[in-house]
Target: Plasmolipin
Amino acid sequence: VLGLLVWALIADTTYYLHAAYAWVLFVSIFFWILTVLFFVAYLLQLQLKFYMIPWPLVLMIFNAAATVLYVTAFVTCAAAVQPTSWRQWDYNRRAAAAFFACLVMITYGVSTFFSFRAWKGLGSNAATSQVTDRA
Model:
């Protein structure tokens, strides 16, 4: 939802006058579509059908890439906001887009952390923690 807000707010401005917003739109739309595809895949439990794919590793790489690219998109979006804009509603939407891009960046960063824990097996549940190796 936050990613949708980023690209919807940017798309509702005169983004074509500023080349920096093309990058922000690309990153936000690209990762929004991929996130929706991953969500639908997990909703339909496709990870069980394609068991040969290391899903925790794939999600960790996806979240890490999204975090890094959203850092660049956030910095670009925040730097391109000009408070002296002649169109006040563009300024408000661009500032809101920068705020939500920051939230999306933080969200992907937290998801990267939890994906890393899942990939390393650090987030085990009670059933798997009962099996221990005793030397």
